Amino acid sequence: MTRHVNEDQLIQYLFDLAEPADKQAVAAHVEQCPICRAEMQRLKDRYASLDLLAGEMTVSEELLAAVVAESKKPHGGQRWFGMPPVWLGAMAAVLVIGLAILVSQLSEKKTGTELALGPAEKPTSYAFYDETKDSKRSLFSKSNFEEEPPFAPASAIELNVLPSRDSLQLTIYNSADLTLVRETRKLTFKRGWNWLQFMWANTLIDPTSLTLEPLENKDKIEVQQLVYPPRLRELGRWLIHSDIVGQVPVQITYMTSGLSWRAFYMGTLTPEETHVKLSGYVRVDNRSGEDYENAQTRLLVGKVHLLDQIADLARRQYAYGSPIAGAKDESSSLITSWFNWQEDRKSNTGLTDFMVTNGVVTMDSGALAPKEIVKEGLSEYFLYTIEGTETIPHEWGKRLPSFETDRIPVISLYKYDEQRWGDQAIRFVSFTNDTEHELGQTPIPNGQVKIYRNTGDTARLSYVGGTDIKYIPVNEEIELNLGPASQVKVEPVLMDQKTDHYEFDRKNNITGWDEIQTWKLTVTNARRLPIKVEIYRHFETPYWDISNRGQSGEYEKEDLDSVKYTLQLEPESKTEFEYSVTTYHGTRREGRK
């Protein structure tokens, strides 16, 4: 900075209103320039009286009326730019009051969301002077205030802290960093214009998604606009016109990031492994920067199209991009109003709500009763509403019960497929998400499952295995992969291989042939329980025939180039069978399927 710093720059520097880069440049220049250093000291002396206004202060209507009345009296003396000295004193008084409160507001560190509203009882009406319309209009004309919307105040001179939330609802989406927040509060309005302030400092709230709607007297309350005052980051103000005086419930809606949920399940097999007790849970984690108290929590399964990531919108320096003309902003589009659209669809389609009573006590300290989860279908989406309310502070996680079934009929199944799992048999537990298996009311969200076995001793459980499951619709079969089985063996051995039935062309070149392989399979069950085993065999061509010998169980063609054998084995037993497969190559494939 080669030039001297002007007075406006020094004032912004002294009252901490400058941008960080500008503040640093001014400080560096003042340190080296004695002229600007002296000018800054002069300004410090001029505004030293502002320290007296650090506490809370109010300006009565009587004082303002007296100042205005005094300004209308004839005065002698020198005029400055055509204005009487008393006018200048009145304007200076208002400027000092507003500036002092602005400095006080900016000096406080705000964390989390905060709401404030203009007072309802005997408010001071501020209409800002506009000489382009009427140079004779009073600076504090109440009629002017009621006729035209006021400018957004630069300070919180007319704002009071609002009451706490009356209700709170969170709709958390499980595969995108997205949560819809709906909260209701009772606001006290004055007749005329009201300013409502919303702050989201140190949170991941998307300011582009903020909406406000009165829940009563909608024909008498109009939300005009939402503005973002300059130099006051992470803060917006609604301009609201009210034809009534008193309390009105309103709903504030916005999107936020940082809230997530995931499902997990615990299954306990009976000693004979014919049934399983299955318990489902969800864990909700809050990293949004905001504490959500007594919130109704709803969990959404499905996919939603996002134009922007909420976390990116929340972290932008300015709510709707830079206020400086021509400045570059990395994000400019808005998120779709998908959630509200889905809610409208649900209310118009008459979908039935399902209530599941589970009898599970949560793991949270102090929980005395089980939670119920209301489950609603929304086309290809599904919504789970947890019974009651939950308090989920920032950086906390909570485990909540989803459902519990005592005796689901299951099948203990072992699969052997060299192409998929090598030379090991893999254990599965299978059942169907339907009413016959005490399920079938809702889809099962993707999550992690851990299976244990009751050994017969109520004090002991043995861990069987765990796996991740994908979204399981109603009436679809579930197969839980529990990993390799050490007590079930499948051993295939190639017993014979030959070729036959050669075909030749006119030049005596081979054009077709058959290949015949004979395999012997030995299946061993070392467990003390009966088991079911599926064995998959694959071929190199879709042109083949097969013949079986021995106890091969049920046989079926799986697809064009593979077959499946299904065997039932008694406890601690072994079985053997053979098959011969003939595969056709070249011209030998003609006429075969």
Set out the fold topology.
Elements: H1 7-14, H2 20-32, H3 34-46, H4 61-72, H5 85-107, E1 112-117, H6 142-147, E2 160-161, E3 167-173, E4 179-189, E5 192-201, E6 205-214, E7 221-227, E8 235-242, E9 246-256, E10 259-269, E11 275-286, E12 292-301, H7 310-314, H8 338-349, E13 354-356, E14 373-378, E15 381-386, E16 390-392, E17 397-409, E18 411-416, H9 418-421, E19 426-432, E20 447-454, E21 461-469, E22 477-484, E23 488-504, E24 510-525, E25 531-538, E26 544-550, E27 554-559, E28 562-569, E29 573-586
Parallel strand pairs: 3-12, 10-20, 18-25
Antiparallel strand pairs: 1-2, 1-5, 3-4, 4-9, 5-8, 6-9, 7-8, 10-11, 11-17, 12-15, 12-16, 13-14, 14-15, 18-19, 19-22, 20-21, 23-24, 24-29, 25-28, 26-29, 27-28
What does this structure look like?
This protein is an alpha+beta fold and 593 residues long. It has a domain at 488-589: Immunoglobulin-like, CATH 2.60.40. The protein is built from nine helices and 29 strands. The protein has helices at 7-14, 20-32, 34-46, 61-72, 85-107, 142-147, 310-314, 338-349, 418-421; strands at 112-117, 160-161, 167-173, 179-189, 192-201, 205-214, 221-227, 235-242, 246-256, 259-269, 275-286, 292-301, 354-356, 373-378, 381-386, 390-392, 397-409, 411-416, 426-432, 447-454, 461-469, 477-484, 488-504, 510-525, 531-538, 544-550, 554-559, 562-569, 573-586. The strands form five sheets. Strands 3, 4, 6, 9, 12, 13, 14, 15 and 16 form a nine-stranded mixed sheet that branches. α1 (7-14) packs across α3 and α2 (20-32) crosses α3 (34-46). The protein starts with 6 loop residues before the first helix and ends in a 7-residue tail after the last strand.
